[in-house]
Design goal:
With about 120 residues, the chain is mainly beta. The chain has no helices and eleven strands.
Length: about 120
């Protein structure tokens, strides 16, 4: 298994940027697909971005395409989400997730095996 911990959230004005990080421990992160999800109060967990085990395959939700960039550094056991041009509707708790033993990419939350505790992102108007 792998343990995940997010960091980098905070309060930013609309149009600003944040870089979220996901630190993995326990097992080699290179064996896992990785994704980012977010959840606002009263809403279901929403897909944001995903990346395959090699880092060459990526997919983004339409709502963040062109603004967010997902990446990973398997040598450092980290994943990252660079968020630019932030909007108030991006406000949510952001979670990183991993799925073991796969070379595919996944966009549904119930397909993932491991989750971090989340980090709060708040974008002011």
């Amino acid at each position: 298994q792998v343990q995940l911990a997010e960091s980098g959230g905070g309060l930013v004005p609309a149009g600003g940027s944040l870089r979220l990080s996901c630190a993995a421990s326990g097992r080699a992160f290179s064996n896992y697909a990785m994704g980012w999800f977010r959840q606002a109060p009263g809403k279901e967990r929403e897909f944001v971005a995903a990346i395959g085990w090699s880092g060459s395959r990526t997919v983004y939700a339409d709502s963040v395409k062109g603004r967010f960039t997902i990446s990973r550094d398997n040598a450092k056991n980290t994943g990252n989400l660079q968020m630019n041009s932030l909007k108030p509707e991006d406000t949510a708790v952001y979670y990183c997730a991993a799925k073991r033993w796969t070379t595919d990419v996944y966009v549904r939350a119930n397909e993932y095996d491991y989750w971090g505790q989340g980090t709060q992102v708040t974008v002011s108007s």
